[in-house]
Specification:
The chain has 254 residues and is α/β, with parallel strands linked by helices. Helices cover 31% and strands 26% of the residues. It contains five helices and 13 strands. Strands 1, 2, 3, 6, 11, 12 and 13 form a seven-stranded mixed sheet that branches. Strand 12 and strand 13 form a beta hairpin. Helix 3 packs across helix 4. It is globular. The chain starts with 28 loop residues before the first strand and ends in a 5-residue tail after the last strand.
Length: 254
């Protein structure tokens, strides 16, 4: 009697299945899952807690897709208080200087893992330095153009993307450029930590209200710095994170 054996496809919870739809089940992948975002002016709230829960659930499912997959987690903290519309960024009243991260670190520990924290103030400073170098060599960076005091990105999705402004001798990055900087930082981290993984994914859980700025930032990164084997999955959700929407992008989408 011949016994036939079949491989069983890993079970992925329905809520996170769309977030992992493009992750290979036959090759090793490195993933950074970002959740838990909060603003220091408001503190850790419902979206922060629920989006981190979603991120941890996504990472655990990703590990089951292939036993060689590597997953790390990050929380973005908006310590600038910056809120962006299409052309203007505003700063509300300052919040507390520090926020107790224990609710988030405890959730990660309970899931048997840990997380890192990325602060937007650090990203803004890095983005400003990088843009100053680009402005000195405009021929090397044709997707950015200076128009008076404005630094514009030549988007294929939006009529106008304000990447930054020049004030005196300083570059002041706007939200899309700061977002692009955290994607650059994330993928550099994955490349350095997991060079043997065939694919790299950043799965970024965001509030629906942030859709424009993170989509603009993803386009900036993917068209200016990304490798062909890198993918950004932009995830948008309400405060409950019950029905997240996942939109995967690579450089080929632009």
């Amino acid at each position: 009697m011949t016994t036939l054996t079949t491989s069983r496809k890993p079970t992925v919870p329905s809520r996170v299945a769309p977030l992992l739809e493009t992750v290979s089940t036959s090759a090793r992948s490195a993933l950074l899952v970002a959740g838990g975002y909060f603003e220091t002016t408001a503190g850790i709230g419902e979206f922060s807690l629920n989006s981190l829960t979603l991120a941890l659930e996504t990472g655990a499912a990703a590990r089951r897709l292939h036993r060689g997959n590597k997953v790390v987690y990050d929380v973005i903290v908006n310590d600038l208080g910056m809120s962006c519309s299409d052309d203007v960024c505003t700063l509300p009243a300052a919040g507390p200087a520090t926020t107790d991260l224990t609710p988030l670190t405890a959730m990660a520990a309970a899931a048997g893992t840990s997380l890192t924290v990325t602060r937007e103030r650090t990203l803004r400073n890095r983005a400003a330095r990088a843009m100053k170098r680009r402005l000195r060599e405009p021929a090397e960076h044709p997707l950015f153009v200076r128009d008076g005091d404005e630094i514009l990105f030549r988007s294929r999705q939006y009529e106008k993307v304000l990447a930054g402004v020049v004030k005196d001798d300083h570059v002041v990055p706007r939200c899309p450029l700061i977002v692009a900087e955290y994607f650059a930082r994330y993928f550099a981290r994955l490349r350095a930590a997991f060079p043997d993984c065939a694919h790299r994914h950043v799965i970024d859980v965001n509030s629906l209200a942030d859709r424009d700025k993170v989509t603009k930032g993803a386009e900036i990164y993917l068209r200016t710095q990304a490798d062909p084997d890198e993918e950004i999955v932009l995830v948008f959700a309400d405060a409950a994170c019950a029905d997240p929407i996942a939109l995967p992008y690579t450089a080929y989408d632009f």
